[in-house]
Amino acid sequence: xxxxxxxxxxxxxxxxxxxxxxxxxxxxxxxxxxxxxxxxxxxxxxxxxxxxxxxxxxxxxxxxxxxxxxxxxxxxxxxxxxxxxxxxxxxxxxxxxxxxxxxxxxxxxxxxxxxxxxxxxxxxxxxxxxxxxxxxxxxxxxxxxxxxxxxxxxxxxxxxxxxxxxxxxxxxxxxxxxxxxxxxxxxxxxxxxxxxxxxxxxxxxxxxxxxxxxxxxxxxxxxxxxxxxxxxxxxxxxx
Length: 239
Ligand code: FPP
Prior knowledge:
By secondary structure, this protein is of the alpha/beta class.
């Protein structure tokens, strides 16, 4: 029998935290944890259709993550390249549409080319929409959006009087996404770390102790069940 997914979130966003500690607990280098984390990404994407989750957005690399050691940054960039190369075929076959958010300017050309190719390859898919945030920061995104909006005003494409709260989202990296219903952060940290600042205005948050490499589809299902028990009012009073 198919699972009852009514009342579940349409869009789940995840701050995948705890890879480093997971590796450290095993006396292994931090990149070992990131590789284990990448394997979890695959399982969670595959679990989405059965859970009624249409949109999944994951935070893979923040604008602040450049402050890590050069070896870790290089290892993560290599992991992203290899992940795209290895997973492209299955993502396509499984109906996953992949898109990336974040500023691509600082990323290396080869990675950007692979990201562009994967977006194009999967552009006709509609079963699950996976958005991967790389070199992403919420303040940076809003700043870049405001700059583009200002250019449009200067070019007379937009009048300042017409700028409403539905205008800016069209300039955000996430212009193609509905707002997240649920934001999950793993590893016991209760911070949002500059993730989807504008978009999460009415999102529910779940901060769970599980480290990201231990975030199995079963843990995911439990978090979704707890979401369903919440009473979302969007600022209104329940009648
Ligand atoms: C945070 O854990 C994790 C990251 C900064 C990287 C997230 C990347 C992955 C899960 C790898 C794969 C992703 C894709 C899309 C292939 P942390 O290193 O901050 O952990 P710590 O807080 O325990 O040190």
